[in-house]
Design goal:
single chain, alpha+beta, Peroxisomal Thiolase, Chain A, domain 1, 6-stranded mixed sheet, 11 helices, 17 strands
Length: 395
C-alpha cells in the first residue's frame, strides 16, 4: 500500500486513439508522444525540468528505442532528467504508475512523469544472424503480427479468452454480445454534449505530413455497434463466443500522468479541493493460455493491499480486449457487468498497448470526480497470462 504518491487533478492527459494504419501510422511513437506531452505541459504552464524522474512505457520498438527515457526527457525539454523504459505488454501503463508511486514511497525522487506511447501500425520487422542456419539464413520476427500469438501456449490471444470461457463453463456468446453493445453505449456517453467527458482529459495530437499540418483531436476507428448487429456476427473460432465485434482492435496513441508528493500535487492541481492518491498495486499470472483469468487475482491483490473490498469501489475500469474478460470478472467478483467501464474502454476505442491502461486510469479518475470521490479500481490482462491492477482514491 502506498501513502506518499499523489496525482494532481488535471495532471494527466490522453491523446485520442487512432485506428491501426490510420493517421499516426508513420509517426515515431516516442517522438510524437514526447512532442504531444511537451505541448500539454506548456498548456498547463508546467516546466518539464520539474521532474526528477521519467517513466516511459512503450511496448513496440521504434527508432532509437535504446535511448527511450533519456531521449524522451530531452525532447520534453529536461535534458538533465533520467528515467526508465517500462515494457509489460498491456499492463505497461498500470505498472508505470505503480513504479512511480513506489519510487516516491522509497524517497528515490519527489516528482515523476509517466509517459506512455505506442504505435501498433507499421510495426518493426527484426532480423538477426542464425549461425546454425543453412545457407546463412536469418532469424526474423514481425514485432506486431508474431506477438498476436502466445509463444508459450501456442495460441492466438483470442484463443486464451476462449479457453477461459470453456474453463468457466458459464459464459455465452449472448452475454458477450450484450456486454459489447453496452460498452459502446457507455462510450457514446463520453461523446455527449460535444464530447464533454472526453474533453476533461483529452489532448489533441499535432504533427506535420510534409508541409501539411495534421491535427487528430478525437478517436479514429471506433466502429458503431448495436446488439442486433452483434448477434448476427459469427464467432471467430468455431464453437467460441467472440466475434470480431466483441474484441478490441490495435491502434496508436499516447498519454501522460504526473505522480508526485501530496504538497506538489496540491500545487499543480487545477482544483485545490480535489485530492487523488495512488493507493495500491496488484499483479497475477494465470495458468498457461488463460490470460483473461489473471484480471481477477490482480484486482483482489490490489483491493486487499488497500484494505477494501469490491463493495467499497465506486468506479471499476478494465482493459477488456475480449468481452469475456468483463463477464468472467463480474461473475467472480459479484459485480454487475453492465455497471462498470462507464464512458469507454479498450474494447471500443482500441488498444495501443502502453497507453491503454493510462487512459483507463485517467477516465476512472474523472468518473470518480463526477461521483463526488471514492475508490476506483483499474485492472486488466496482459500478454503471457499476466495481469495488473491499481487502486486510486479521489477525495
Amino acid at each position: 500500500m502506498y501513502s506518499k504518491a499523489f496525482i494532481p487533478y488535471g495532471g494527466y492527459y490522453s491523446s485520442p486513439f487512432a485506428r491501426w494504419q490510420g493517421s499516426l501510422q508513420n509517426e515515431n511513437s516516442l517522438k510524437l508522444g514526447a512532442a504531444t506531452a511537451k505541448r500539454w505541459l506548456a498548456s498547463k504552464n508546467f516546466e518539464a525540468t520539474m521532474f526528477d524522474y521519467l517513466f516511459v512505457g512503450k511496448t513496440v520498438g521504434q527508432l532509437h528505442t535504446f535511448y527511450t527515457a533519456p531521449l524522451a526527457a530531452a525532447l520534453l525539454g529536461a535534458e538533465r532528467t533520467t528515467g526508465l523504459h517500462v515494457q509489460q505488454a498491456c499492463s505497461t501503463g498500470t505498472t508505470s504508475v505503480s513504479l512511480a508511486a513506489a519510487g516516491l514511497e522509497m524517497g528515490n525522487f519527489n516528482n515523476s512523469f509517466c509517459l506512455m506511447v505506442d504505435r501498433m501500425s507499421n510495426g518493426p520487422h527484426t532480423i538477426w544472424p542464425n549461425s546454425n542456419g543453412p545457407g546463412g539464413q536469418m532469424v526474423s520476427e514481425d514485432w506486431i503480427m508474431d506477438n498476436f500469438n502466445d509463444p508459450l501456449g501456442k495460441f492466438p490471444m483470442i484463443q486464451t479468452a476462449e479457453n477461459v470461457v470453456k474453463k468457466a463453463g458459464n459464459i455465452t456468446k449472448e452475454e458477450c454480445d450484450a456486454v459489447a453493445a453496452r460498452r459502446y453505449e457507455q462510450y457514446l456517453d463520453s461523446l455527449a454534449n460535444d464530447r464533454e467527458f472526453q474533453k476533461r482529459y483529452m489532448f489533441a495530437i499535432e504533427f506535420k505530413k510534409g508541409k501539411k499540418a495534421i491535427v487528430v483531436d478525437e478517436d479514429e476507428g471506433v466502429t458503431p455497434t448495436t446488439l442486433d448487429t452483434l448477434v448476427k456476427l459469427k464467432p471467430v473460432i468455431d464453437g467460441g463466443v467472440h466475434s470480431f465485434g466483441s474484441q478490441t482492435h490495435p491502434c496508436d496513441g499516447n498519454c501522460g500522468i504526473i505522480v508526485t508528493t501530496r504538497d506538489k500535487a496540491q500545487e499543480l492541481s487545477s482544483d485545490k479541493n480535489i485530492q487523488i492518491q495512488v493507493i495500491s498495486y496488484g499483479y497475477a499470472r494465470a495458468e498457461r493460455a488463460h490470460m483473461a483469468m489473471a484480471v481477477v487475482p490482480a484486482a483482489m491483490m490490489a483491493l486487499e493491499k488497500a484494505g477494501i473490498g469490491a463493495a467499497d469501489v465506486k468506479a471499476f475500469k478494465t482493459h477488456n480486449p475480449f468481452a469475456a474478460n468483463d463477464v468472467h470478472m463480474a461473475k467472480e467478483m459479484g459485480i454487475d457487468v453492465m455497471s462498470f467501464n462507464n464512458y469507454g474502454s479498450s474494447l471500443i476505442y482500441g488498444h495501443p498497448q502502453a497507453p491503454t491502461a493510462g487512459r483507463g486510469i485517467i477516465e476512472m479518475i474523472e468518473e470518480l470526480v463526477l461521483l463526488g470521490g471514492g475508490y476506483g479500481l483499474f485492472t486488466g490482462c496482459a500478454a503471457g497470462d499476466t495481469g495488473a491492477a491499481l487502486v486510486i482514491k479521489v477525495s
